[in-house]
Design a protein that fits this description.
Largest sheet: 5 strands, antiparallel
Strand order of the largest sheet: 4-3-2-1-5
Helix content: 25-40%
Shape: globular
Mean pLDDT: 91
Distance between the termini: 29 Å
Strand content: 25-35%
C-alpha cells in the first residue's frame, strides 16, 4: 500500500544483472557457488518438464552450459537446459 519508485527499482535490477553478467564472464564458478549457497533445489527431489515429458529426481547441481543436473529416480544422471525445461512446483 505504498508508492514504489519504478525508476529506482529498475536501476537496482539492471545494476544487479550487470554485476552477475560480468561475474559470469570473469568467473563462472563464482556464480555456480553462489547458486549452490542460495538454491532451494539443491539436494531436493525435483520434478521437471522437458519437451513435454516429466522427469523426477534429486537435484545434484547446475552446469553453466548444460543446465540443471538431476539424478533420475529410474537411475542415471541427466542435464536439463533452461530453454526447454520447466520446474514443476
Amino acid at each position: 500500500n505504498r508508492a514504489v519508485d519504478r525508476v529506482s527499482v529498475s536501476r537496482r535490477i539492471i545494476n544487479s544483472l550487470d554485476y552477475w553478467i560480468n561475474l559470469a564472464e570473469s568467473s563462472g564458478n563464482a556464480v555456480i557457488e553462489n547458486w549452490k549457497r542460495h538454491s532451494m533445489l539443491l539436494g531436493e527431489r525435483v520434478t521437471v518438464i522437458c519437451d513435454g515429458r516429466q522427469y523426477c529426481g534429486n537435484c545434484l547441481g547446475v552446469d553453466p552450459q548444460k543446465g540443471l543436473i538431476l539424478q533420475l529416480e529410474g537411475g542415471g544422471i541427466r542435464m536439463f537446459d533452461a530453454a526447454h525445461t520447466t520446474v514443476a512446483w
